[in-house]
Every structure is written in structure tokens, then in C-alpha cells.
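User: Is it possible to get a 3D structure for a protein together with its bound compound? The compound here is zinc ion. I've pasted both below.
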Amino acid sequence: MNKHTIRVVAMLATGLTAAASLSAASAALAQSAPSGNELLERAATALGGIAGRSAVLGMHTLTLYGFGENNAQDGGGNVSASPHAPQKRTDVDGIVRTIDYDNGRMHLQQRQVQAFEFAIAALMATGNEVNQSLDGDVAWNVGGNPFNPAAPVRTARASNEQVRARRIEMLDNPVSIVREGLAPGAQLGGVLTDSQTGDQVLDLTTAHGDHVTVAFSPRTHLPDWMRWVGPHPVYGDLTYTTWFTGYEPIVDGLVLPFGYQTTCDYHGVVLSEVYVDKYDVNALSGAQRDAMAAPAAVRAAPLPSPPNIRIDALQVAPHVWYMHSSANGSSTVFDFTDHLTVFEAYGSEANFEAILRKIHEVFPGKPVTQLIISHHHLDHTGGLRAAVAEGLTVITNRGENVAFVREVTSRPARMFPDLLQKKGRVGMVKIIPVDDKLVLEDANLEVDVLRIVGDSHMSDALGAYVPSAHTFSEGDLMDDTGWDASWWGNSYPDTVKYWHLQVNEDLPVHGHMHTYAEMMALAKKQTETSEALCAKADQAGFALPGCPVANTMAGY
Ligand SMILES: [Zn+2]
Ligand SMILES: [Zn+2]
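Assistant: Yes, that's possible. Here is the predicted structure of the complex:
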């Protein structure tokens, strides 16, 4: 990316309108540069191929069939936070994306299968079905619980954030961009030339108010990429770029891309790749188009309200409290004489804020000063930015996590402000790095923050052991609620053995408190599920990641 394109994104990120941000820049450019309108018109002609520009501008419906891969957790779900860690991927099969341009509707059907060792067997075997729709400003989903493919299917209205995200998805296609750019109400900025690629780069604001940047090839006049900014709970404002490649003529006469790759400005992670099998143009029947309309019940339904997160405070031992969250992301609170330390800020700003409210209820006036994070995965750091916003010092495994915590809490969220941005604490994190062991101790309590051992799910991870209470606080060693398979069941007993611990009570981030003996029984049972899954795949003649199971729990 050269300085021009960086500048375009920087302008988008400041929230200025495209027209205002580019007027000065475009004035400085050569008079011969094409206008935005000319670029879009040329692109319409190029995309139209032998069918002509009217085939693009007059298109009624477009259906894309394909398959692909998504990055699990936007690059934040790998074994470590190193940018060079092997990337965990989700296979995306049976993609059918349908757009009805006349009615402003989109439908997406696909199946997502975890292509790595995962703790829910069904998500590795059959995966979960995605069935998403947009009709104007109404979005909805048909399906059950993504973590439980057997859950009953229901139709539910989605949030306004989802409406925006799907409008961008609908736009993220050369035909859509050109049509939206030429539609009444669109605002076009000036045109910059990328000095490296020669691409002509245009800022565009759609009639819906969505800001995107589009690059056109000077050679083919076809769109090369589209860029936009979206909110991210851990990365703050995230800049996405979709590259349109492999253009070829199709039988209808148009010229369309057979490859879509979306990257982001966090380590250049490749978020998604779509391989196109075929396109259908204007192939939907009237009945099929009618079926894409928002059902009356969805249209009448209120927007989903944020989940009501319930936190139950339970004293486990003197100065050790378990804060059980209904959002499947619980925390432990260590009550030192003059401050409180929290283990884990799971899930989201909302979950961590709910936990903090409960803590203030139980310990009025006592400051919460430290956060221990179990590991860097983005679900387990969903409340990290909120914790830094509240001024907490972060205790994390040295490994790659120090750089990770510093980097993600230094990213601004100007376009989609979160608590960290609103409190002006972006880039102000304080970190206490842990090598293998850190002892937190005062008159009240000793807490040993210990490195997790031999874990194939996470290499830079910490647990917290209280010798006086024989409790162990952990994230992702075991889960009694959502998980049914285990590939790293060895890690808990290995850690206990390595550090010579005497754990009686497990205080998990996921699920519920159990005795250590119960957790070991669960680890064995879940490992058997993994072995059974491998046997099933073997019988059917299919290969599965993680098979045969290496960590068999033998000896435990
Ligand atoms: Zn994890
Ligand atoms: Zn987890």
C-alpha cells in the first residue's frame, strides 16, 4: 500500500466525509485524471463485457456459488499471538449468496466447519449452517445456536450493527459497487492514483451513508479492491480490504471475479477467501425473490436488546470470590488488603462492566487495580479494552502476549468509539509480564500466577492458584457446558503435575465450578468423544484435523 492509499484510509478513519476529505488532494492532481463518475462508468462497461453496461446497471438479481475459508477469530484464535503463528481456519462450504438489486435484498447460505482441533465435535464434523438475510434496513437470521448445531431452528431479527455489516457485504462485489456509486444520492470524492500499482482510487459514500474506498485498474477499468472501516471489540476500528481477482467472462456475457480475498489492517490477516464456482444472473423466479422479503413477524419484531447479563457472586474461600456470568465468561476476584485483582475479562465490554458492577456491590469503595488474562484468544480478551479503560494493570504471560496486549489497546476506535476511546486511554496500558511464575502476596492472600503447561490450544497461557484455598482459576483448560470434545485434556493434569499443585476446586472461565476430580472425569469423557469422532471419520474414509488423538489422557 503506498502513501496515497494510506492517506485515503486515514481520512476515512477520521470520520470526515469522503467529499470533504479528498477535495484538497484532488485539486493537486493532474487535470487529466478521470472523475469518479468516469471511473464508475468505465467499470460498468468493463463488467458488462459483451452484454454491455446495461447488463450491469439493469441487473435484477445476482447469485454467487462457491466455497472458501475464514480465519477463526480474525487472526486472534491461533496457538500464540505471533503474527507468524499457524492460522486457524474455518472451512466455508456451499456458499450461495443472492442479491436482489431491485428490492435491496440479500441472502447468504453457507456451512462453516472448524478446520482445526476444536472442543465441539459437531463444529468439526458437520459444522454449523449460516442462513442470513437483509431486506432494506431489516436483517435477520434463521438458525439455532452456532455452538450447538442440534439447537432448534428459529428466526430472529438482527441488530442495526448487523444491518450495516450486511449492507457492506452486499456492496462488497464489483457489480454492487458500480451500481451504488452511480445511484442517485451517492457522493463521489476526488480520484487519487496509486503510484505503485497505477490504480485509480475513489472515495465513495453510498446513499445509505456507508463510506468505502474503491480502486480501479487503469488497464482493465475493473474494480481491483474495496476498502472500509468497521468496529471490532478487540482491535478497535478495523480497516478491511477485499481484493477482486480472477476476472473472466461468464456465459451471460458479463466479466466477473472468481476470487475474493478480504484482509485487514491487523497484521494483514487474511480474514476470508471465497473461491467462486459460478454466477447466475437474473435467474431467480418471482417466488424466489418474494421469499427474500423480510417476514412480517421479523419486520414487526423489535430490534434485539443487549443481553441481560447476570453475575452471581460466590465466596469460595477467604478472600477468593467466583463471579459467575450468565454470558459464559466468569471471573475470579482475589481480595488483597488494599486492592482487588480480577482473573479474566471475557467476552465483551458489556460482560466485563457487569462483572465490575457486581464487584463494586460486594466490595464497595475497594479499587480494582489488576487484571490477569488467561490467554490472548479474542473471546478471552473481549473485555480487555474495557479493563484498560478502567485503568487496570494487565498481568499476562510474557511470550507474545505483551506485544499483543500493547498493540490491541493502542488501536483507536474513532469511527466506532468504545469505552477505551471514550475514556481517552488508548495506548495507556500498564503491563506486568509473567515469565513462568508470579507470586502476588500480602497479609490477606497468596496467589500464584502460573504458566500453563503442554497446551495445544494456547502456548502463552496463565492460571491462578491459591495455595491456602486449593483453588485454580483457568480459561479453556476445561468446560462443562459448551464443550463435548477435548484434544488438550492433558494440559490441566500436566500443569498440576509440573507445578506440584493440590487443586481441590476448579474456577473456570467457562461453565461452572467443579471439584478437580470432576474436571478430570470430564476431560477423559471429552477425550473419548474426540477419539470416537476420529474413528467415525476413519470409517467414512475422511481425514479430520487432530486425528488420531495424541493427548489421550493415558496415565491420568
Ligand atoms: Zn482459547
Ligand atoms: Zn474459551
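The pocket of zinc ion (ligand 2) is lined by residues 379-380, 475-476, 510 (CB under 6 Å). Confidence is low (pLDDT under 50) at residues 1-31.
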